[in-house]
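Dear support,

I submitted the protein below through the web form. The confirmation email said the job was done, but the results page showed an empty box. After a refresh the structure appeared. I'm attaching both so you can tell me whether what I see now is the final result or a partial one.
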Amino acid sequence: MSWRQMMTLITRVHFPDEEDMRLPADRQEREDRTRGVRLTNLEKCLVTKMFITTGLEFTKLADLWGCNERTISAAIRYWEPRWQQAATKYCRLRVWDGYLKACQPAGWSNRYKHPISHMTDRSVVQTNTPRKSCLSRFMYNSKIEHSAALGITLSTPTGCGFLGMPLYCGKLSEVGYMSLHQRWFDMIPPGFARLVDKGFTRTTRYYRWMNFAYVPAFIRSNSKDLSGAQLKDARKQSSDRYTCEVYFARVKGASKLLKGECRHYHWRYLETAWCLGHYNANLQPPLRLPHNFDELKSQYEALAR
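What the results page shows now:
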């Protein structure tokens, strides 16, 4: 995204009602900050986005922007919930059957009996271990064997996350997580299926229309081995699900708070970083082209003319 596009989104789409959404008029105004002149409202907005993206300490941000820590703290305190509200609109989208059918990649109608509405996957954000023993038990995640926050997202086969759900303590299971938000899945229309891994095999009951789940074959307690056909099919399904893995890489790559180990004093900003990660990922090109991409492209070019 270019600088001009980002400024247009911030000033005209996300925050059109905010005042003083401008950059310093000239060099003299920028230099006047050393004599106590405050940041403009747009600069405070950008400072907050920079903090969520980079995870820099307030002292470093104050040095970069030529102001004191108190100004940085006040700006983030004001703008952080506003950024979360704006980003949430981009990670919790409305979908319908016509849109989901248009997102089907070429060849999937022959491979799967039902059109695929979405892929469900989870991601964990590693955090430092809390001192309180009860909280540390709730935060412990067996996937990474460390304290973490857990989030689940539903994304289309083309790589657009339309339902990024909140972060919870890492000990929560996938089935328990899905049960908390089962009302949200009423948006999935009947007649569609899902691509999921084995952690979501028992979540069909949380969908209003009992949408079928395609799960790669895995060894169960009553089976000792998999056939060659099962292995081939499992490999193909896992390959079809690669977009949700890459999508999460885009989400976590958008903020340093989501990568590495998030310190306890940054936990309050994790949800905003999570939403902004989805926001940035959804503004990028699709990971897989839909079957009617050429038709959509020609329609767009005709409208552009």
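Response: this is the final, complete result; the empty box was a page-load delay. The chain has two domains: 3-90, 93-253.
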